[in-house]
Amino acid sequence: MSDTTIFIPKDSRDSVQLNEDGWITHPRGETIEVYGPAKGHAIGCVHAYEPSEIDQRIEQLAQGYQTWRFTRLTDRARLLHRWADILEKHITPLAQLLMLEIAKNRQDASDEIQRSVDFIHYTAEEGLRLSGEALYGDAFPGHARNKVSLVGRVPLGVVLAIPPFNYPINLAITKIAPALMGGNAVILKPPTQGALSGLNIVHLAYEAGIPFNVLAAITGSSRNIGDYLVSHPYVKMVNFTGSTPTGQHIAQITTMMPLLLELGGKDAALVLSDADMTLARDQIVSGAFSYSGQRCTAVKRVLAVDELASSLGLAIAEKVRTLTVGLPEDNCMITPLISQQSADFVWELIQEALEQGAVALTPVHRKDNLIFPVVLDYVTPSMRIAWEEPFGPVLPIIRIQDEAEGISLANASEYGLQAAIFTQDISKAFDLAEHLDVGTVQINGKTSRGPDHFPFVGTKSSGLGAQGVRYSILAMTRLKSTVVNLGHV
Ligand code: NAP
Predict the structure, then answer these.
(1) Is 182's C-beta closer than 6 angstroms to any atom of ligand 1?
(2) Range of the domain at 373
(3) Which of 144, 335, 381, 435 supports an S-S bond with 103, CB 3.0-4.6 Å?
């Protein structure tokens, strides 16, 4: 395999091949198209799995799991390290694929893959170091020290990993690697836009030696196979990242099954009167507009105290006017949104806010699914854009009287992913952080995920459970207690 193109042989089970026009796939049977947001047309297609094929494939995994769960930790770690090394050699073509498939710019696409490589290495190391404990019985009356519980962790079985379109490689790998290290078999159901990337990383895992009956990519439209996969009797856990309605739907149709859900967000940046304005401006612009705002932890609203809101708004707008807009291969920060439908939704939120009195501090302009970055001042809580997640390049500024109003508005959201506080008073920052109902508070920094060994948690409609290397391994394994009754042997 060369390091400038990715080539999967035509006779492989889920084959994908790149030519000069883009990605062409050679899947068998029924297919679904993968749309290229920057091209405006389909760039390839992938196999659409039928339920009977899903059954067959999952049965293979259920069998493979019985061997994998007893495979030595060091051997699992070695295979993961090898996978990471192979992925690293393919950063250039994989980044090219992300540019085509999801219109992520060249640098961000490369960063996503490098981060995934680092994640796998760290996971392999962390998995080796997880240990159990021994508990003695004499802490409770009537029991003696000769009753000992050996507490360890065991895998769950077949884990279903479902990432969203915006990080189809990273959010697949942050599920697959800890699940495998924990001894599980894994089905990757890639997002349809991101399916080519998903197939490729799984193929590279096979090349590293990760067994075919331990990891599978099952492609197809979620409309047709989503519910079938999620409620399949062999699936013992779902690890999902995506929108809140889909996460809620998955929670409704599954019973007695552990779920990890990373869902939507409406992260607020609270800017107080003593904030370092340059820092706040730079962090907010980067946090709000990277990958055109299509990030769960994007800054999705600014809550600025009235006395500095005007100057902050103008400073943000000035910086936003310098953002590059265009194609992913030109490394532009603002690129076409994932679909026309997404662009229509963002546009509708902007237009509605303008009609209701919001003031645009930047030009409001759209070309098909490319929306130029917009900063809206004088947004009020009665506007939809104050509460809904646009997933696009628009930043509402809401003026507040004081911190108390800021905390109240921040917490009134249905979401609780992250929040940022900009102030030079560190004691005040800690105090406010205590009152924010979110998984993570960033003090003097933009909202964002990572470093990836930090816990990543969402409250309310933003999710369930914790991710982060160690936390993900723990979440995808369970405790098992073996009690030795020493007096009886
Ligand atoms: P989405 O529409 O919910 O889709 C996410 C994934 O779920 C895709 O792979 C999709 O497959 C699949 N899916 C949809 N319906 C399903 C079902 N019934 N059963 C099983 N799988 C199903 O979300 P998206 O538009 O891709 O992603 C954007 C959302 O993700 C935003 O709300 C964002 O905030 C959130 N997100 C959250 C985090 C976080 O860590 N909290 C990170 C990134 C993104 P198809 O593509 O085939 O439909």
Answers:
(1) no
(2) 267-447
(3) 335
